[in-house]
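Hi all, long-time lurker, first post. I run a small reading group and we've been trying to get comfortable going from sequence to structure in the token notation. Rather than ask abstract questions, I figured I'd post a concrete chain and ask someone more experienced to write out its structure so we can walk through it together at our next meeting. Sequence below, copied exactly:
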Amino acid sequence: MGESAVPGPPLRPSRAIQIEQSLSLLSGLVGHAQESFFRCLARGIARRPIVAIVATLTVYVGCLPGMLLLGGSESMFGILTINTGFLDTFTFTLTDEYKDYMRATDVFPDTRSLVFIAKPLDGRSLISSAVLRQIRKAEVQIQNDSRFESIQGHQLGFHDVGERSSSGSPCVTRSATITLLGNDVATRLSELEALERNVSAPSNAAVQTVVAAMNMQQRASLPLLIASSRPFPGPGATELSLSEWLSASTSAMSTFTLMDTDDGMRFEKQAAKDINDNGYPENTVVRINQFSSSTIATESLLIGIDHVPLIAITISIMAGYLVLMLGTDTRIPGNSQVKVLLGGTCIPGLSGLASFGLLGYLGHGVSVLGTMVPFLGLAVGVDIIFLMVSSVNAVGPDVTDMEEVMVRALPRGGRAATTTTLTSVSAFSIAAATSSDLPSFLWFNIGLVLVLIMNWIGMVVMFPAMITLNQRKMTAREEPKSGLAAKARLLMGCGRKLKGVMKAKLGFAVEHSLPFQISGASAWLALTALGIYFGLQVERGMPDTYLVTDSSRVNAYFEDVESSFVGSLPMELGLVFDAPRTLDPSYRSRLSELIATLNNRSDLALPVDCWLDRAVGSLSSSASMCEVDSAILTYLNDSVTGAASGRDAKGGVTEHLRAARCRAFLWQPTDAAKRSEQALNIVSQVREGFPELDAIPYHLSFPTQTARYRIIKDKIFSTAGFAFIGVFLAVLITMPVHLAFLAVGNVMAVTCVLFGFMWLCGITSNLISFTVCVMAIGFCVDYSCHIVHFADHDVPPGTPWDRRMRLSLESCSFDVLQGCSTAFLGVAMLGFGSAQAFRIFALLSVIITLVGGFFALIGLPCLLALLARTWRACTSDTATEDFVSAAMLSAVPTNGGTEAAKLVDIRAYLRSVERLSL
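-- Answer (accepted) --
Happy to help. Here is the structure in token form:
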């Protein structure tokens, strides 16, 4: 008699399977809730379609007045204002460089600057009376002639808005002509003309005359204003050396320092306009190009204005494409839906305007990046129209009651639209949350979130109501045989023909064609691997010209600067000493050591100008408070030194001296990598080398350029990573966990290919590619979600994955293709934009739509079908049973203790989790 089997304790599935089952149950419950919601919504829409349309339009119209409340510094068409301040819109506000700059400028308010570069033409020498006379004419135009009307209605000029070094002193300027010729420019120009007319005078007589009359202060200022092909010999060099250096000069630069006020900004614009209108850039003697603190702001405004007609063109193209693809693709043959499609195309446009209004109600504004929001709203919004039309047509002509039609169609189309909208909203919301330190990008993402939400409302309420009105009295009609109507219907039948071909061919090839499976899967794997390998090698940096319109004269300014100063520009570095402890001998000693250290830098343009060190640096270690006070007061009250240094002191003396500012003139590289390296070196040298001084080294380029260069690549990867997590969690709400992994994995592959393409084209990690990277996640997750959603929706359990892919492609491949096409059309017009940044944006966006569509329609389906084929070839029912180990047996809950009973339960259990395997 055999041993009786003793039943063991009840066995439980593994933790991973329990989690999967719970998540799948949650997604199932959410799916049922969505279907119930959309069935109820469909009944309401079908019964009161006009009410649904009016209610949706009311929501849109109610948002529009908020556009008047948008905050900004520049006005477009007198209605929409945008933020154009470079420091406020394109700077990471949590970086040390930004915090230092804000700390320093809070004590010593920063100034604005207007600068122009003059380049002689036709081989002329810079030291010629004709060239210098034209340069002086431009300087006088800025200093004396340019006038603007203030808000109060007063006519103001440079002396009203120029920064003053102390009360009653002239505005701060660095004049190339005064540096070369002294204060009596007119007399010296006459002398130069006389020398040029004297045929017996040597060829270099003018240069020698200029150098001979220069004092030491003029000589020291030469490298800041004059560009030469030779290295500067130093202010103490011989007249011959200075003459040779000046003879090789290629251009001159003059700068004008303004107070950082609204009036200062208005003067900049007026002065720039006057220079351009007076024809200086086209002068036959010298070319003069200007740049100011508000130049990029002005260019941003022009770019935004240029986007408006492109948006109108995009809407028109999108409407035409919809009519071409879906004009006659109605549920009941012989009818059309052109008016419905034209109305549906307006929904993303209204959503874009509504999002601007909502941003205004929130008390915020948009930057030049925000002007792309309508394009992206069209790109991701119009594809829902294809889903809705497809869902309605799937009901078939046999159902005559429109309420029943919508009850069947809206849950199918609404769920798909909700899934794709939710994932995109998640991606952009996470991107906004993780980039709150970059204001322009933050509100760009929030604007996209608002566009998507408003578009979803319109597409699931307003558009179904329009379809209901259009089809309510439809009857089957015969197709016209001839005439214009027949030709129009033939043209509008392209969509139906393409849909039929894709339904018959693509799914079949994915399921049955081994070469097609191998080709598609190989392309997916190869492109992803290459993208990962080369994407990690993408460089960083964004040239200033990216945000300048092609027709702008600023491009010529950058070209002249680059050719004249050969890779570096003079930079005025600020050093703020917070509450300097001038009574402390060790503090005074360390201050002198810091100044000496900076004066020994190889990139120094001029000796450090530090009034505080000159005042107290030479005092003995036993100096009393009275001696220190006397030294500082004597220096600040001096008629010569006080005028130049009064603006660099805050508070009284000794304990009451709140802050002091010193200035170092360095050569700053124009190359982004070298510029960032220099900034880090300066900060390290001051902060780490002399921590007891509590000095703040700062310059506007540190937060706006070098800090961004330093962190942009890490920021892209971290933001993308968080966006992937957010999208995955959003997909889990509406899909089983294995489908969520597939969808997000496919999007990650697309993002890898995007980085590989950037490396191939030499596009760097910058603000534009940062934007596109996050946008790629929000765009491409839609395509992938459609494919994996319809691979599971209404598909019997146990269906192999090659068959699932065929069913999915037959259901939604046409819709996914149209989603890619509309996304392409939505961003393609940016390729005709007036600035390089947005052409790069368009190019990268086109790549993600093409690659995203290919990976969703061919790459991922072929990979899954090939794996399913391989699984079947390597596995049979018997092999599967042999493969089950004791660990698997212990994980399966069984009702009995016999081996036969266990095998029965194992088979049932494997069938219940078959969706996890390929």
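A couple of things your group might point at:
The longest helix spans residues 836-874.
The mean pLDDT is 83.
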